[in-house]
Design goal:
Length: 253
Amino acid sequence: MTRKTLIIGNWKMNLTMHEASLYLHKLMEQLPVRRDVEVVVAPTMLTLQSLSLQIKRRIVKLAAQNCYWRDHGPYTGEVPASHLHGMVDYVIIGHSERRHIFMESDKDIRFKVQAALRNRLQPILCIGETAHERTLGETREVLQDQIVNGLANITAEEIDHVVIAYEPVWAIGSGEYAQPSDLAKVLKVIRQQITHLFGKEAAEAVRVVYGGSVSVDNASDYLAVAGLDGLLIGGASLDAYQFTEIVKKAHKE
Ligand code: 13P
C-alpha cells in the first residue's frame, strides 16, 4: 500500500487574517501541483472560513488546530467539529500544548478523535513523550498508552482516515530534535500498537508523521526515513519560503 506523503504546517497562535491570506497567496504561487505530496496548513480558528474560500485544495488543504467533541450545545467559547466540516479536511487533536497547557485529558482527546471522524474530518492525533518520560526510558509505554486511549472505540475502517503525529515534547520549539536514525524504533512501536488494536492492514494504511524542530536543513533526513510519511512543522512553517522549500524536498516525482 502506498501512503501519500503529508507535509503539515502548524501555525499555532500566529499570523493574522491579513498575514495568513498573503502567505497562502504566495504558497499557491510557488508550489507546483504534484500528486505525490499532500500539503496542509493549520491556521488559527478565526481565519479558517475566509481562507477556505481562498485556497485551491489541489495545492493546499486546511486543518483546524483543535475542535470540541460535542456537536452543539451550551459550551461557551468552543468550536465543534460539526462546524468545521466543509471548511477543513483535517483537525489536529491532542497536541502536547493542548495536553499540557490546556490540561486536555485522554478522554477529551478520544472524544475529539471520534467527533472528527463522525463529521468526516481526518484527525491528526499527536502523541509523544516528555523529557522526563524519555529520561526514565518510558517512551514506548507512553506512546502505547496515548494510542490506546486516543483511538479507543474507533473501527478498523475509520483508522484509514487517522494520521498519527509523533511529536516528542522535548523536541517542540526547542531546536533539539529526534535523530532520524532513532525514529525507526518509534515507528515500529506505533505500527505494532495499531496492529494489535486494528490488524496488520490497518497498521500499514495509517500515516505516521514526525514533528519537533523540523527545519529546511534537517527535513530531507526525516523524509528519507523508511516508514515515515511526512512532517508536522511549527516554527519553520511560519515562513512561506521555508515551508515551500520543505515541500519541494518531499517531492519524489
Ligand atoms: P516546532 O517545529 O516549532 O518545533 O513545532 C512543532 C510542533 O509543535 C508542530 O505541531
